[in-house]
Design brief:
By secondary structure, this protein is an all-alpha fold. The protein has 6 helices and no strands. The protein folds into 2 domains: 66 residues, lambda repressor-like DNA-binding domains (434 Repressor (Amino-terminal Domain)), CATH 1.10.260; 30 residues. The termini are far apart.
Amino acid sequence: MALQLKQRFGQLVSAHRKRRGMTQAQLGEAAEISTDMVARIEGGASGARFQTVEKLAAALDVDPAELFTADIPSSKLARPKLSAITRRLSKESDADLDWLAGMLDGLLKKR
């Protein structure tokens, strides 16, 4: 059970890091931990103490709970519009997602 939690935690840290366009080195610097530690966490080889979880969450601009589960029940943390968009996009082909990503990049640059 503990190994599964470490792996899930690591996968979510990695996913949030990639979503933000950060390298492991950039995340390590922002969270004030070594790049090696980031790699071990993301690989599921190491867990993290609460202080490290807080630093990672702050560096990734997420609530610490989001590093343990992608499905957060609290109304404060839930993002129903994002969830609805994600469900809708999950049905699209890779080609359509590439097209949509290009459109989204263009739209967001204009803001």
